[in-house]
Amino acid sequence: MLQIYTGGGKGKTTAAIGIAIRMLGTGRKVYMMQFMKSLAYSEQKILQGFAPQLTLRTTGKPFFIAAEGMLSEEEKKAWGDEVVIFPPGEPPADYVAMVEAGLREAKEAIAGGDYGLVILDELNVSLFFGLAKRESAEDFIDSLPESTELVITGRNAPDWLIERADLVTEMKEIKHYYTKGVEARRGIEN
Hints:
Elements: E1 2-6, H1 12-25, E2 29-34, H2 42-48, E3 54-58, E4 64-67, H3 73-79, E5 83-86, H4 93-110, E6 115-121, H5 123-128, H6 134-143, E7 149-153, H7 159-164, E8 167-170
Parallel strand pairs: 1-7, 1-8, 2-3, 2-6, 4-5, 6-7
C-alpha cells in the first residue's frame, strides 16, 4: 500500500515514525530517507539506535528554500541569509542533484526486498519545489517490491500522488503556538 501524510498541520513525520515502530515490532526492517533534512533532529538519534533493523538516511539540508513570491518581506527579513529564494521553476541545481541522488540511493537500497516499510520523509515538499522530479518518484514507486509498504510525507502532496495512493491523511492545523512566537522546542518539534 502507498500511504500519504500531508497538509499544513503538525505530525506527518511523527505518524511515519509511529508506523516504523510498529513495523519494527513485527521483526521486519524499515528504510527511511529524509529529504531536505540534515542529522539535526532529536528523533534521529533514537531511530539510529534501531540499526541495522532501521536504516536512516538524509539528503541533507544546505539551506532553506522558497520560490519568489512565497515569502512576505517580513518573512524574508526574519529568515535573512538562511533562505535561498529562487525563480519559480528554477530551484537550486545543487539541491536538485542532492534530492535526486537520495531517491536513487533509496531505490538501490530497496531493490533486494529486505524492507517491510519504506518512508520517504518530506518527498512531497521536494516535489512541490521541483527538487525531485515526478518521473523519478513514479519510477521509485513502480520499483517497490509488492511486500513493501510505502509512506510519503510532507506538505503539498501533488494531486497525481494523492490519486495513486491507497491512504491519504491530511494534517490540518487548527491552532499552533508558533503564531504566538514560540520557537521549535527540543523533544517536541526537533
